[in-house]
Design goal:
The chain is an alpha/beta fold and 237 residues long. The protein has helices at 12-15, 21-37, 39-50, 68-76, 96-104, 116-121, 142-155, 168-175, 184-195, 202-206, and strands at 58-62, 84-89, 108-113, 130-134, 158-164, 214-221, 225-232. The chain has a single domain, classed as Vaccinia Virus protein VP39 (Rossmann fold, 3-Layer(aba) Sandwich), CATH 3.40.50.150. A seven-stranded mixed sheet has the order 3-2-1-4-5-7-6, covered by helices on one side. Helix 3 (39-50) crosses helix 4 and helix 8 (168-175) packs antiparallel against helix 9 (184-195).
Length: 237
């Protein structure tokens, strides 16, 4: 039975040093989890639902991790070329092969090693056409989410978030994640992620749109994902 309200608790992976063998294993687990969840397909569908009038030229990914999911997106979007992409994370986790792959696709890559709250408090160096994030927003309580999403709205033309869904099905899936070979860190964090996940219109309620400048959509992407999209009017069809 899922709790009716979000429960946000620290996750083990966030507390481990990036070079800890358990952290390295958990990051490998997350790549398998993304495939099991269909994250790439869900992310592509969410971007399509934005109905952007022109392809993005500057993309920001928050909580980018090792950059592998965005790289898969890049390969799946052949019309997106010569983009400038900024990957923001507390740690630089990109390997040499990943960097080379971005370069081969013609994507100009910047890795911004920074805590997202630090990024919020500083004046960003540029505006972005599109901001994306996956399995990241659930780490923050409602008050912090309000600050973060206000910064995203101020500096981006469109936003896509794919998060854990707070549901009985997702909770059961989190309990069975060991089936894909996940280690103890990933198994523990999966349950916490679902408990901190989203349902209904919770993200829409936080998004700062007092003047109706944004077209927002929030929906379930079965079996385990909760999506939120926002596009500034004028950049979407």
């Amino acid at each position: 039975m899922m709790a009716s309200a979000r429960i946000v608790a620290p996750e083990l992976l966030d507390e481990l040093h990036p070079d800890d063998p358990r952290a390295r294993r958990s990051r490998r687990d997350l790549r398998r989890v993304h495939r099991a969840m269909g994250s790439l397909s869900i992310l592509r569908q969410a971007i399509a639902r934005l109905q952007l009038m022109t392809p993005p030229r500057r993309i920001l990914e928050l909580g980018a991790g090792d950059g592998s999911l965005l790289l898969r997106l890049a390969r799946a979007q052949p019309a997106w070329r010569r983009l400038e992409v900024t990957l923001l994370d507390r740690h630089d986790l990109l390997g040499a092969e990943t960097r080379k792959s971005y370069d081969q696709l013609g994507w100009k890559l910047t890795v911004l090693r920074r805590d997202v709250i630090e990024w919020v408090r500083q004046e960003p160096a540029q505006r972005f056409d599109l901001c994306i994030t996956t399995l990241f927003l659930h780490h923050f309580d409602t008050a912090t989410l309000g600050i973060l999403m206000a910064a995203i709205a101020a500096n981006c033309g469109a936003f896509v978030a794919c998060e854990p869904r707070r549901s009985g099905v997702a909770w059961l899936g989190s309990r069975l994640i060991g089936i894909v070979g996940a280690n103890a860190v990933t198994r523990a964090d999966a349950v916490k992620s679902v408990e901190a996940g989203f349902a209904g219109q919770e993200l829409t309620a936080i998004w700062p749109d007092s003047h109706g400048q944004w077209r927002c959509e929030e929906y379930e992407a079965p079996p385990f994902t909760h999506c939120f999209t926002a596009a500034r009017r004028g950049v979407c069809a």
